[in-house]
Amino acid sequence: MIKIKTILSAITSVTLLTGMGATAPVFADTLDDVKKRGFLRCGTGEAKAGFAMPGDNNQWQGMEIDYCKALSSAVFGDETKFEVVPVTSKVRFTSLTSREIDVLVKGTTWTYSRDAKLGVDFAAYWFFDGQGFLIKKELGVTSAKQLNGATICISPGTTSEKNVADFFRTYDMKYKPVVIKAGPETLDALQKGRCDVITNDLSALASDRQKFTNPDDFVVLQDNIAKEPLSLYVRQNDSRWKDVITWTRNALVEAEELGITQENVGQHAKHPIDPRVARLLGAKGAYGEMLGLPNTWAHDAISAVGNYGEIFERNVGEQTRMGLTRNLNQQWYDGGLVFAPPFR
Amino acid sequence: MLMILRDERKRAIFDQVLFLVIVSAFIYYLSANLIENLNRLGISTGFSFLWQEAGYQIGGALIDFDDTDSYALAHIVGLLNTLLATFLIIVSASILGFIIGILRMSPNPLMTNSIRYVIEVIRNIPSLVHIVIWFSLALHLPPVRQSFDIYNTVFISNRGIYLPDPNFESGMWGVLFLFICLLAYAFFRKRKAQQLMRETGKYQATFLSNTLIIWGGTICAYLLFGLPITWQAPTLSGFDFDGGITIAPELFAIWIALSIYFSSHVAELVRGGVQSVSKGQFEAASALGVRYSITMKMVVIPQAMRVIVPPLTNVYQNILKTTSLGVAIGYAEMTATTGGTTLNLTGQAIECILLMMVSYGIISLIIAAIMDQINKHVAIVER
Predict the structure, then answer these.
(1) Chain A within 8 Å of B349 (Cβ-Cβ)?
(2) Do A193 and B330 touch (CB under 8 A)?
(3) A254 and A271: one domain?
(4) Helix axes A184-192, A202-211, angle to 10 degrees
(5) Is residue A330 classed as helix, strand or coil in its secondary structure?
(6) Edge-to-edge, what's the strand order for the sheet holding B245-247?
(7) Is A342 domain-assigned?
(8) Residue A109 lies in a domain
(9) For each of chain B's 383 residues, which pLDDT tens digit applies?
(10) Measured at the alpha carbon of residue A112, what is the angle toward residues A110 and A115, in degrees to the nearest 5?
(11) Do A61 and A85 fall within a single domain?
């Protein structure tokens, strides 16, 4: 019978069938699966500078990869026990539901219909993004509301297409969409004038602008036409694993609030003064065990990648080529949206 | 029971019914398995999403399409673009391929060899590379504000070729009516000439006179009705041209690229077909004093067609399937709308892929059916 299923999946070539055909009957907890397997399968983006991109020595680098490291450290106490599985926008949810990956880290907007319909659960925000427009300065456009009649280059497989349609409908304007693969093709199209404007996530536009030989001829408009909370997803009805994902992220955020960094985490763990630090780092209580993790899980994660602020600055911050400011990704007490519930 | 198995004809029917039952059971098992698993994972299934509002726009739609229209209509828009590209490429690749294929067998060795190398090079470059090359060439045309114009009516820029839009006035219907009448008359003349040929063996040329009758008559009528077509030239306003017909660079690129690519395939088929006609046929014709052009037209090509048509069906079906590469340069065909944006927005991967499979399958079968008719027409008529 298994053989028939294998043949079938080859025929239909729909990944969903493959995964489920082989492992349908047993639905064990993903945390147990990961522990038994000995490593974690982390679904990341394919190539997005600052988020997931092969860097020097062919090592993957970026914010998404750092989250995989943190998770691997939290579960195994070792930052190398994970495998990077690059997924495209088209197959990401199918990869997750068919168990090719354990967690979807690739920048994926949390939306109602995805949560409700696709058999996945949202676990936590990882990056607050928005959607904007990149345009040539010489056109003299200062606001997105002046774009009536413009030809717009959009990348396929993203929520951008819908956002643009919504925005232009709201302001009763017309546009001509050109759907081109993100990357050099889009930049070429803008440079040569195939389209008047590119739309994408603001973080992506900031890095795109830097790729032109003359970045000063281009400008990212101030308008933000959509909320894009890039989030971590797990399979539906997998509560314990979802908690691990959510609270690992929370631990990294909490660490920044408490002033724990990659450098001083050892110090803090040995001599915790603040009881909140003691609970987080496993010096007091058995907080890790509640999740089925080692008691030093948060300590291990922080010593692997640092706190949320450090991860941001190292990968996409102002000192990097991406040159992003924290903006909405500041801590709540600085006026941003990044917030961790209390560890008690 | 055994009686049935002994009768050969009944056994054949029995086998087929048995086979059908097994296949249906297999398909039923697969779909039941799939639906059960999807339900367990909490993924919604079914095609009801097709009637929901699509919420995105499509560039280069042939029919009116807006973001408030349904996913089903978005599929139709993609389907029409697929059909448009397929049709244009089939026509131009066939014409170009036949010309190249005939030239390939020219008695002039310089011609034969240069064409041979051109065909080899074109044939061995992947179709996607052809498309990307032509697309980047199209992008190197001047930008829209400095577009190249022909008498201020046709504009060429990297945002497309803008042609004036014909507006039919009422007089045009008269012209069209006359055109159809003339066409019928010319057809009648040809039939009569053929009958004369069969009965008396006298050859009466009709092609030239018929062409003259049809076009001469139509043009006269067009002038008499007072030029009933007005052309609306595109004008530059705001970001882009307004009015007129636009051939987007994506369509232009895929059209030119695949026409060239597949013309090399057609050319090779034509060469194979003509070479399959035995040399004796040429020699017999020339021994009877028949001219080279007539020999080709009346003796060689009709026989070659029997060999060319069946594999030509394959090429045409390949053209249909290869238009899906248009997604790489943003041509809004079926793979880009249903298999791209719709799939992503709804997450209904299996339904979208199924819809595409069925659509491509149906068009493929239609092509096969049409080619089958042509094949019957050119096949040896057994008497």
Answers:
(1) yes
(2) no
(3) yes
(4) 70
(5) coil
(6) B148-150, B154-157, B160-163, B245-247
(7) no
(8) yes
(9) 666 667 788 888 888 999 999 999 999 998 888 888 877 777 777 888 888 888 888 888 888 888 888 999 999 999 999 999 999 999 999 999 999 998 888 878 899 999 999 999 999 999 999 999 999 898 888 887 777 777 777 888 888 888 887 777 777 788 888 889 989 998 998 888 888 888 887 777 788 888 888 888 888 888 887 777 777 777 777 777 777 788 888 999 999 999 999 999 999 999 999 889 888 988 898 899 888 888 888 888 888 888 899 999 999 999 999 999 998 888 989 998 888 888 888 878 888 999 999 999 999 999 999 999 998 888 776 65
(10) 75
(11) yes
CA B252 to chain centre: 14
CB-CB neighbors (< 8 A) of A113 in chain B: 346-347
> What is the rounded CA–CA span in Å between residue B31 and residue B280?
59
Q: Which tokens is A283 given?
A: 């010096």
Q: Crossing angle for the helix pair B127-139 and B249-276, nearest 10 degrees?
A: 140
Residues B249, B158 share a domain: yes
Same domain as A234, residue A222: no
**Tokens coding A310:** 């450090």
Interchain proximity A161–B140, CB inside 8 Å: no
- Looking at beta carbons, which residues of chain A come within 8 Å of B350? 14, 16
B116 HSE (CA, 13 A, CB side):
8
Domain count, chain A: 2
Structure tokens that stand for A337 in this block: 């949206």
Distance of CA B280 to the CA centre of its chain: 36
Q: Which of A176, A195, A226 finishes a domain? A: A226
Contact assignment for A20 to B140 by CB distance below 8 Å: no
What gap in Å lies between CA A119 and CA B43, rounded to an integer?
5
Give the global pTM: 0.76
**ipTM given for this complex:** 0.71
Query: Which residues are registered as beta bridge partners of A179?
Result: A154
Looking up residue A308, the CATH number of its domain turns out to be 3.40.190.10
Considering its fold, how many domains does chain B have in total? 2
- In chain B, which ranges are E strands? 148-150, 154-157, 160-163, 165-168, 229-232, 235-237, 240-242, 245-247
Does residue B290 fall inside a structural domain?
Answer: yes
**CB of B203 closer than 8 Å to CB of B197:** yes
> Roughly what angle, to the nearest 10 degrees, separates helices A297-305 and A239-257?
60
